[in-house]
Structures are given as C-alpha cells and as structure tokens.
C-alpha cells in the first residue's frame, strides 16, 4: 500500500522538459526524493513521476495555460519509484533561447501546506463535481477573473446600485405622485358628495315646510331640485370615471336612482315619510363618503398638515351638518304643528341639540390641530368659528321659544332661516377644506412628478459620468499593466533589454509597484553582469578541476587495490589467530569443567564420609532399638499368655452362671405351676415367678454373649501369641543383619579416607593446569586483539581509500556538472540583454 512522503522544508525541486514533455534535466533533491536514478528520468516523459490519479482536467488546464505562453501554478500529486506519493506546490514556466523562442518548460516544486493538501485530495477524489460546483469562497471567485473583468464588475455594480437607488427614488416619488393624485380625486369626489348632501338637506327642509302646510316653500323646493339635478349630473359623470376606482360605483348609481324616485314621489308622502327618505339618502351619501376616504388613501395620509383636515372634512363636518339638518327638519315640523305638536318631539329636539353640541366640541379640538399645522387655513378656521359662535344663539332661541313654550312662538320661516344659515356655514367650511385639500394634493402630485423627473435626469447624468470614468480608469490601468507585462515578458524571452524603463510617472499603488519592479530589474541587471563575468571563469576552472580530479581518481583507485590486497592478507592472519584463540579457549573451558568436576567429587566424598559416619551411628542406635523391641515383644507374649489363662477361668465362671440360670428358670417354672394350683391366692406369686423366669432368660442370654466374647478373645490371644513369636524371630534376624552392616560400614569408611586423600591431590593438579591455561588464553587474547586492531586499521585505510576513490568519482561528476552548469549559466545569462 502506498504512503505519503514529504518534501523537506526549505527544499526546492526542479525539472526541465522539452516542448513535448521529455525530461532534459533534474536536480539532485528530486532524484533523491523520487528514488529514481538520474538515467531513469532523463529522456523520459514528465508523466513518469506524475501520479496516475491526476485528473484529465488538470492536464488540459496545464496544456492550455502553457499553450498561451503563460506560467501555471497549482498542486500536483507525484509518485516515487517505490509507489509512494507526494504533494507538490508546482509552478511551470516556459524558458527561452537567446532569440526568445520557447525551448521547453521549467517545473519548480516546493512543499505544500496541510490545508492545501486536503483541498487537493478532495479535488482529486471528485474533480468533475468540484469543477462544476459553485464556491462561496470570495477569494477563489475573485481570483478567477482578470483585473479588467473585476473593474468592470465593480463599476457595473456601482452603476446598478445607482440605477437601483435612482429607480427606487423615482418609484417612491411615483407612488407619492399617484397617492397624491388618488387623494386629490378622492377629495374632489367627496367635495361633490358634500354639495349633494348640502342641497339634499336644504331640499329636506323645504319639503318639510311644504308638507306641513307652508305652501310658500314649494317654489324653493323646486328650485333646490333643479340645483340637485345639475349637481347629480356632474356627480354621475364623476362616478363613471372614478366610481369603480373607489369601489363605490354601484352605491353611487343607487343614490342617484333613489333621488329620482324621491323626487317623483315626494309630493305624495307625509312630512315624516319625506324626512325619513331624505335621511336615508344622506346616510347613503355618508357611507359612500367614508368608502371613498378609505379607498383613496385619504384616511391613511401621513402628513400632519392634511391629516386633521381630512379627519374634519370626512368624519366630522358631514355628520354635524346632518345633525343640524335633522334639527332643522324636526324643529320645523314641530313648529308647524303648533298646538297639535306632540311633547315627545321636544325631547327629540333636545337630544339632537346635545349631539350637535358634542360634534362642535370634537371639531373644535381638530380645528386647533388644523390651525397648528396649516398656517394658510385661517379662512377655514374663522368660518368655522363664526358658525360655532352662532350655535349658542340658535340653541337659546330654540330653548326659549320652542321647548319652553307650550305652543311654539317661533315662526317656521324664521326657524328655517336660522338653521339653514348655520347648515350652509358648516357645508361652506367643508367645501373650503376640500378645496384646500385639493390644492395641497395637486401641489404634492406636481412636486413628486418634478422630483421624479429630476432624479431620473441626475441618475442618467451620473451613470454616463461613471461609464466614462470607468472607461478612462480601466484604460489607464490596463495600458500600464499590458505595457509592463509586455516589457517583462520580452526580457524573460530575451528579446528585451534589462534597461527598459517602467516608471510611467504614476503616483498610485501601481506606480509604486512599477518603481520597485524597476529597482528589482536593476538588481537583476547587476547580478546578470556579475554572472556573465563569472560563468566563463567557472566553466574553465571546472574543466581544469575535472582533469585534476580524473588523475587523482586513477591514483586513488590503484591505492585502493593495493590496500585491499594487504587487507586480505591481514584477514587471513586474523583468521589463524582466531582459530588458535578458539582452540585455547575451548581447552580452558574443558579444564574449568574438569576442575569443577574434581571439586564436586571432593565435596561428594566428604559428604559420603559424613553419611557413613551418620550411618554407623544410626546402625548402632537401630541395633539397640531392635534389641529393646525384641525384649518388649517377648514380655508382651508372656502377658498375652497370662491373659489367655485368665480367659480360661472366665469360661468356668460362665458355665457356673449358665447352670444357675437353668436352675432358676426351672425354679420359676415350678413356681408358676404351684401358683396356678393355688388359684387366686397364688396369683401374686405367679407374677414373681414370671419375673424370675424372665430374669433367668436374660441371664442365660447375657451368659451366652459373654461366652462368645470369651471365645473370640481366646482366639485373638492365640493369634497375637503367634505374631509375637514371629516378631521375636524377625528382631533376631534384624540384629544379625545390623551387625553385618556395621562391619561393612567400617570397611567403607577406611577405603573412603584413602580415596579422599587421592581426590585432594587430583584437585590441586587440575587447579594448577587451569591457571596455566588461563595464562595461555590471556596471551592468545592479547595476540588476537592486536591482530584485530591491525586488521581494522588496514580495513579503515582500505575503506578510506575506497571512499576517497568514490568521492573522487563523485567529485569528477560534480566537476562535470559544474562545467555543464557554468555553460548553462552562461547561456541563461546571455539571454538577458543590457
């Protein structure tokens, strides 16, 4: 299994190939790392050291880059001769001849960092996936593009941003314009509704007077109807264009239809029915008014100068006018009835007056805000204040002459005139507000339109300016970069001179870079000048050195051959001394073993003597113990004989007891017979006789047991007596044998003393022979060491001579390499002109 090897730190590997990729030169570090011989690489394709896993896309990219005469840089996986691999940060650049023609390619290889290796391994595993995938690394994305593309992208992004900002402002102003226009149309629509409500309320008042008996009001009612027809016609036309937009088209058409029906049927209705129809019609107008306010955005207007005006115009003044219209119609009907008026109508009038008062208070608060945020609303505020100031007089008039009186004393025409005047003032305020709102929304729409046009013009001008500026900047940067790149590439190819000037008088970062590049070129010029002088001398000196090294190498080779012959003779001498030393060492080891054996034999003889002495003592002790045992056995036999005699006496006693038992048993039988004859008187005696019979039987049984035991005892005694007699005979034989052993031990002890003396003399002789052999061994060892030292010295001389010879060959090769390097250096230096 292959394993990864590392390029040593601060090591640079280099390879040169021709145009088709065959290796023409390699440095020593690469040869050592790749494990190939130099001859195995030269003339072979660069693919020999490139790993087989190298993706085809990398090969294509290298071919494409080098085909464009550009350097290539990346990470390549290379292989060694043993199958191991190493990752390399590789830079491939073309190299040229003196005419600037491409001769081949130079591979400069350095070690790669761990993170770079991980990325390269991932790419080698999934090349297609990673090539087609999108990277989120900003550096990688940016580095893929040229400077011109980056600048175009930046300027394009700025232009797009400006277009977006300008377009956004235009859209905002467009929305403001459309919102203002929409609110303007809504205000105009509601103004038309306000006129209709004012005229409808007037018509309601005249019709109330006419239907309650005031025939003089008929003419005024017809006049109002004609005005309403005209205003309704304008309203209907406005509804046709804006009704659907404000989502009130159908409701507005229904209002116009209801008006026409009311106009036709009004004369035939009662005063109350006419009043209710007018109220229904006005409520429908108010609903449309609110819907238009919501759909046109009037209620959502954020500006304070219009917000409060819209609130008053749409949600407060129309309702106040409607309440005043109800007060007019209700009070007029009550006054016309006179004595026939109902008391409940007074209560209704008071409720309407309370509602009107509340509306006036609410509107007064809003008017304060209107006046605060609209300095030009003075006429509106004054008109409202005038109407508000007349309401208390109207309230007092109605209270005193209508409500407090049992029969109203106020004339209908007078009441109608006062209330109608107040209603007209309220509607007048509303119309003034609607007009001012229309003016404000018209002004806003015009301003938004002009602002949007201005933004569009400014954005267009700035965009054109950025495009021109972008073109000038890109051209200035790219022209400097192209010129500098062209000059440097010509210098590298040999078609340009090192004295080319890169100072364009630019004071930005690029100018600073070019200045330092100019300084770098000057330094290179100085180095090239020195190298040109040195390269020729180096080539000549290397040739002389090669000749000297060649002669020295021949001499050292001869010396190495002579040294090898001397070394061979010394090795033979060393081998002979070694054999002698081994023989003496073997003999010394044998003598040591003999000395050890004799010493052990001497020790064993001493131990035998001790053992014989111990055995003599033991045999005497054993003889004594055996004699005592024999006497003890004899005494025991005598005792057993006496016991046997006693056992015979036990038999006699047992026989006597058996006779007594038989007689007792017979006596018990006779007693039982006599007791049976005696009848009841002998019953107790019969029991005694029975017990005596049982006792006799037990005695007889026990006697038989004793007799059996006595018989066994006698048999055992007889056996013991026989054994004792045998034991006595054994002890006599043992005593005889012990006596024989004692005599033999005395003879062995005498012979052992003589053998011990002989052994001591043998041990002393072996010890002296061993000491002499040790002296001989030491002398042989010293001779061996001396021969070894001589052999080592000769071997060292031979090795040194061979090393010198080999180094001389290496030195010869090095001199040849220096010669080639000098020629190559001279060729490279001559590429640069100055």
Describe the protein in words:
This is PAS domain S-box protein. Keywords: Membrane, Transducer, Transmembrane, Transmembrane helix. With 834 residues, the protein is mainly alpha-helical. It has a 5-stranded antiparallel β-sheet. The protein starts with 12 loop residues before the first strand and ends with a helix. It has helices at residues 28-34, 38-41, 56-67, 114-125, 127-132, 138-143, 147-211, 217-242, 249-265, 271-295, 304-315, 317-337, 343-373, 378-403, 412-493, 509-678, 683-831, and strands at residues 13-18, 23-26, 72-79, 85-96, 102-111. Helix 11 (304-315) packs antiparallel against helix 15, helix 12 (317-337) packs antiparallel against helix 13 (343-373) and helix 16 (509-678) packs antiparallel against helix 17 (683-831).
